[in-house]
Amino acid sequence: MKSYFGLLALLGSPLLAASAMDVKTGSGGLAVYWGQNSLSLQTGTNEMDLDKYCTQSNPPDIILLSFHHVYTSNPTINLAYHCEDTFSGSSMLNCTFMAPQIKTCQDKGIKILISMGGAAGSYSLGSSSVGSSYAQTVYDTFLGGTTTNRPFGDAVLDGVDLDIEGGGPTGYAAFSNKVHELSPSSLITGAPQCPYPDAQLSEALESGWFDIIFVQFYNNYCSAGTSSFNFDTWADWATSKSKNSAVKVYIGSPACAKCASSGYIGVDKLGQVYQDTLSKFSNVLGGVMLWDAGAAYYSTSGDTFADKLKKSYLGSSSGGGGGSSSAGSPSSSAESLSAESLSAESSSAESSSAASSSADSSSASESTSASTSATVPNDGSDTTGGGDDDEGVLTATSYFVVTINSPPSATSTAALNVRDGDQNGVPVAGLPIPGMAKRAAEPIMYTRVPRLHQFSHPDPPRH
């Protein structure tokens, strides 16, 4: 059956295992999200298979499979075009062919996690008892347990990531604690927005177990590289509030200009932010998280964004590849996805960034109890085939979320094109995507200005 959404780990050799970074205690780590194929509509090139990222000369240390986005009823996952067939009689995707790829990565000391949530899907836990119960399901489905219809077959993932974008914060503390109880060696990570406390992970951050958090320091007033960058707030959480006193905090950043609506700062500035933060918070800082793998490892010539970051700032090959380390010296420029083909120099991107920055700076002073709704007028005009072309301006109190509406209707707000930040109905790179819809965000303190990920299928976007 075709899915409409296009959407015991093996021990490595002693030599490779010895060279791998301990992500629970080390710094200089690199984590990337993989699976949503956002590269395809940015460059026309598909995201590579999972194992190809693990055999790079400067591979990541952690790869987060994105996403387990529908639970607890009829649970399934979404990996865009990478995996589309389901088990017979089940909604769960059958990606058992990926088991050897996962094991290849694990053989090299690279941790492979399943990321739960994302910006679209049908999920919530609802109560502590449901959270605790669903932890067993996740353990059986992805980790060391057993059940029918394990999507990755006999491959045992290294942990679970909580990228919770909706559905409320209830149940995730109980969930993370139960996963830790069932599998103490498994990594439990989270991806909160940088405004503290994060709206959807507030309870889990207060009383749940985390080994690492990948804070999204972009799309918000507290983005990396700005005067409001608030790593110190998260360092305080890690040292004085976290249930796990050894928790590590990663600096989350987009790997290309159009991987986020705001907050892209380029590899050299990101590296400088990392090194400056390391000098102040070496006991807390664990590394850098990038959205996403496709963008991070794409280049038409020369080093990729990830290559530059690892060689010049993080230290090369902590995951298990080759390459030399040249920490401290900026690498030469390359025609990479982030620096050239998706450059922020386009007027559309500049305008979007300016509008987002303005909205971000004002959001910090807004009351967390404030809530506004986005109106989406539709006059029926449609020149791109993806719905009305001139719906109103997207503000900082609204964000994009994918819904499935097939075929799209020009009179439905669930059939909008992807919009570029606060641009007045300007499609991103002129590429309409069926099934996009605007909806009101949470209180403005936790605004989710869109990351605007694009797909070869109408798949759930990241954050």
Search tags:
TIM Barrel; two-stranded antiparallel sheet; 8-stranded parallel β-barrel; single chain; alpha/beta; disordered N terminus; 25% helix; 463 residues; 13 helices
Task: Describe what this molecule looks like in 3D.
The chain has 463 residues and is an alpha/beta fold. The chain has one domain (14-341): TIM Barrel, CATH 3.20.20. Helix content is 25%, strand content 13%. The protein is built from 13 helices and 10 strands. It has an 8-stranded parallel beta barrel, surrounded by 5 helices. Helix 9 (267-280) links the parallel strand 7 and strand 8. Helix 5 crosses helix 6 and helix 9 runs parallel beside helix 11. The radius of gyration is 20 Å and the shape is globular. The chain starts with 13 loop residues before the first helix and ends in a 23-residue tail after the last strand. Mean pLDDT is 73; it is low at 1-19 and 317-462.
List the helices and strands and how they pair.
Elements: H1 14-19, E1 29-34, H2 40-43, H3 50-54, E2 62-68, H4 99-107, E3 111-118, H5 128-142, E4 159-164, H6 172-182, E5 187-190, H7 202-207, E6 212-216, H8 231-240, E7 248-254, H9 267-280, E8 285-291, H10 293-296, H11 305-314, H12 337-341, H13 347-363, E9 398-402, E10 436-440
Parallel strand pairs: 1-2, 1-8, 2-3, 3-4, 4-5, 5-6, 6-7, 7-8
Antiparallel strand pairs: 9-10
Helix pairs in contact: 5-6, 9-11
Protein name: Chitinase 2
Organism: Linderina macrospora
Enzyme class: hydrolase
